[in-house]
Write a structure and sequence with these properties.
Elements: E1 8-11, E2 17-19, E3 26-28, E4 34-37, E5 52-56, E6 65-71, E7 78-83, E8 98-102, E9 104-116, E10 127-132, E11 138-144, E12 156-157, E13 160-169, E14 175-180
Antiparallel strand pairs: 1-14, 2-8, 3-4, 4-7, 5-6, 5-8, 6-7, 9-12, 9-13, 9-14, 10-11, 10-13
């Protein structure tokens, strides 16, 4: 990722995500923190120093949202995180979903966002891209079928104010450019 100069850019290797263990991957602790068990999650270097993460698609929706890491090293499968919202005491364990690193966690005004080189190297194949905010809300989700006649028609948008950026998936050989204001 490159967020030092405008426009920012993200490529297929920037999303840092892992599947949350089914059934018991999210456990509410007595102190309000959450123990998250997932596949190995290697953190993306260059992100802001206080690592933030998003849980999305959890079976129990009470766990979905923005967290700060308390413990768990890059490459690990178990993390203790502090949610930035209240999970009601007594909420049962949950599983499924995705744990994703927030690459930019502050509010940002996005003047323009564009998807470059759509489908390059994937001609004849469907491609998709997903970026969410720190709370797991879609910022941009696009799916282009293999039979799309003109990929250039689907490559640009104006999204304005966004609470953080979390790339979930970016196809290989493509780049997402984000012009901030």
């Amino acid at each position: 990722m490159q967020i030092q100069n405008n426009p920012w850019s993200f490529v297929s290797t920037d999303p840092a995500t892992a599947a949350i263990t089914g059934g018991t991957g999210l456990t509410l602790n007595a102190d309000g923190t959450v123990t998250i068990t997932s596949g190995a999650l290697t953190f993306n270097t260059g992100a802001e120093s206080n690592l933030g993460f998003t849980v999305l698609g959890a079976t129990a929706a009470a766990y979905n949202g923005f967290y700060y890491r308390i413990s768990g090293a890059s490459g690990a499968t178990t993390f203790v995180m502090q949610p930035q919202f209240v999970i009601p005491a007594g909420t049962a364990q949950s599983g499924a979903g995705t744990l994703a690193q927030v690459l930019y966690r502050s509010k940002v005004r996005i003047e323009d966002i564009s998807w470059q080189n759509i489908g390059v190297g994937a001609e004849g194949a469907a491609v998709s891209m997903q970026i969410v905010d720190r709370n797991g809300n879609d910022v941009w989700r696009a799916a282009i079928p293999a039979t799309a006649p003109n990929l250039a028609q689907l490559n640009r948008g104006k999204v304005y104010w966004v609470a953080g950026l979390v790339p979930i998936s970016i196809p290989a050989n493509t780049e997402v450019l984000v012009t901030v204001n």
